[in-house]
Design a protein that fits this description.
mainly alpha
Length: 64
C-alpha cells in the first residue's frame, strides 16, 4: 500500500514541477517578446498566469 501511495505522490509532484516549468516558460516567453519588440499585451500574459494558478489551486496541486 505504501508503494502505491508513494507512486501517486511522485506522480503528483512530477505534475506540479511540470506546471511550474510551464509557468516559468510563459514568463520567459513574455520577456523575450518584450526584448524582440513584439510588445505582447501584458493583460493577456497575466490572464494566462492567473488562469494557470487558479487551476492549480482548485485542483490542490499548488503546495507553495
Amino acid at each position: 500500500m505504501d508503494d502505491v501511495s508513494k507512486t501517486g505522490r511522485d506522480s503528483v509532484m512530477a505534475e506540479i514541477e511540470e506546471n511550474r516549468k510551464n509557468v516559468r516558460e510563459m514568463v520567459m516567453e513574455s520577456y523575450r517578446d518584450m526584448q524582440a519588440g513584439k510588445g505582447r499585451d501584458y493583460r493577456e500574459f497575466f490572464m494566462e498566469i492567473k488562469k494557470e494558478t487558479s487551476r492549480l489551486f482548485q485542483s490542490g496541486d499548488l503546495t507553495q
